[in-house]
Sequence to fold (262 residues):
Amino acid sequence: MIVTERPEPWHHRTRRFLRATDQRRELVRGARFLRGLVPGAGEPLAPSTGRSSDRLARLLAEAGADRPSATRELGLAAVQAWQAVRRSGAPAVSADGITVLFTDLVGFSTWALEAGDDRVLQLLREVSKVTESIVIGHRGSVVKGLGDGVMAVFADPGEAVNAAYETCSAVSVIKAEGYLPHLRAGLHRGNPQRVGDDYLGVDVNIAARIMAAADGDEVLASASVVEELDQDIFTVRPRRNFRAKGTPRDLRVFRVVPRYSS
Fold:
């Protein structure tokens, strides 16, 4: 009996050819060279913000890291290019500083324990969509999501206050079973250090502490923000007896409301 070997299926041959081509040294070297020309290459301190592009970049970086691949290098180059375009919309830190905004849903954690994942995720998606739209509309940039809130930055303090107030108002009408969403917001102006997509430093911490002291639907801002506002456009009232761990003792905080809504 004569046994003849079956020919290798064409799709196996094709797969083997493509894999070998993808690992060719000259192609990998060329792809790495192109990736090096893309803005954002080699930023080891750039943190993950939770955005889809950041997750994709991490997966690409980890996938087949022990095996050279031209496709992987080109994929990373494409993601880096997209991230660079996205970062270009963020305000530059100038000598006058930037305004940092933090938001947070009041009472969210307690409700989330009983609500179930589906309802929680649905609410967070709606809040995130509304927040990002308003921030961008006021020439700001969402730096990162913080679960039930965001961190955003603005070049113009007036735009930052308007964005904060409009976001609080928009979130308050979102429907969620067993929960009435109320957002609080805190703003501070300073010169934080930019690292990749993120901002770090004392000024960022102060903005977060101010937010934590706000009530639902309330926008609090430090004197560094208020001093830059047009007093004909905003109503400003001191938040007396403000104390927050990790903030300067002489920090003055105010409740701010656009006059069109007061």
